[in-house]
Amino acid sequence: MSFIWEASPLWRTIVRSTRDSRPLFFTFIASTFGASTLLWYGTQKFTNPQLDAHAMAKLRAKSGLDARVVSDVNKQRLGVLLKEVSQRDGASLEKQEKRWRDALDGRTTGDKDGTTKRHFGWK
User: Fold this and answer.
1) Is residue 70 within 8 Å of residue 39, measured between CB atoms?
2) d(CA 110, CA 123)
3) DSSP state of 8
């Protein structure tokens, strides 16, 4: 791939100029960073338009049952974890750390029936 750049007279001029001048070197770095940032911003702006509240409500209404079930389960699990933290039921530090590790792994061990991934068909 370097043969493309090495054969270009413009690239050779840029390399020669930036090698000799420190301010020009930093100007070149800033301009390439600025150009790539503008390219990124333009791409994000045009491919991911901002959705207003009406459009978000429409998307949520069209969501499938499985997405709503997963959302409800996640809210319940988060509620259980936050309840555990707020109560501080006198459990040992090791037990609390085990609960948090399990939660990060996708299991909830703090509710009544000890719900885990297995109940949802995950292995």
Assistant:
1) no
2) 20
3) -
| Amino acid of residue 95 | K
Q: For residues 48 and 21, which has the higher predicted lDDT (pLDDT)? A: 21
For residues 18 and 24, the answer to whether their CB atoms sit within 8 Å is yes
Q: What pLDDT digit, counting tens, does each position of 69-108 carry?
A: 888 888 888 887 777 777 665 666 777 777 778 777 777 6
Q: Domain locations in the chain?
A: 2-47, 53-111
Measured distance CA(69)–CA(86) in Å, rounded: 26
Q: Which two tokens stand for residue 44?
A: 């994000």
CB 117 within 8 A of CB 106: yes
Task: Report CA 52 to chain centroid distance, whole Å.
Answer: 21
